């Protein structure tokens, strides 16, 4: 009882110092929940205050970002309104380490929030991460399939146009980025139609098959073989036949031995 009265006192005191465009009452309601002691949540939300980074810990915003999915899971999606502003603040933080932390966990948060909140509140943040530094982009790339499978089909198709951009990195020697892209494309085959695979994923796969790094090429061979299987099992195998004809023309009859070797590895 003593603890409850103390927490209540701290909470009331923190309400008085809130600086917002909302009235104090509206601001209080937007952050109130009944799952954990309110003072505890208020302390957590205050971790994004720039003054905390100077007086408490320079990486306090990163710690806040790291814990956010756990806090969201504890509060439940019905209390997401308590965390939404904090999440958006962290997503636009000047430190790339903070944004990177969120990028690596956005797929987990999407599972917690459900499709409606994900489409409204997480997709804009996800789109921002796609255009960020490579250190941040790798976070969304590693879990690209996990995030896209949670979206509606129409929204998911919009990302087909952006997959090509993953071939371009800040540092061309960052081959692990392209290797991860190949791994994710194998998983993405289950999410798209035969026409989408042929029109959008096929050109990326062929580009990866000709990569300078052998590790990327090896994963790409598996990608192309899985692509042939997926297209062949479609209702109309026309795309599979076209793809195999292209493999013969591009690799089997290539004037370079490396191209012909690629064809053999894909067949294997």
UniProtKB/TrEMBL annotation:
<feature type="region of interest" description="Disordered">
    <location>
        <begin position="11"/>
        <end position="32"/>
    </location>
</feature>
<dbReference type="InterPro" id="IPR016024">
    <property type="entry name" value="ARM-type_fold"/>
</dbReference>
<dbReference type="GO" id="GO:0019888">
    <property type="term" value="F:protein phosphatase regulator activity"/>
</dbReference>
<dbReference type="GO" id="GO:0005737">
    <property type="term" value="C:cytoplasm"/>
</dbReference>
<dbReference type="InterPro" id="IPR011989">
    <property type="entry name" value="ARM-like"/>
</dbReference>
<protein>
    <submittedName>
        <fullName>PP4R1 phosphatase</fullName>
    </submittedName>
</protein>
<keyword id="KW-0677">Repeat</keyword>
<dbReference type="InterPro" id="IPR051023">
    <property type="entry name" value="PP2A_Regulatory_Subunit_A"/>
</dbReference>
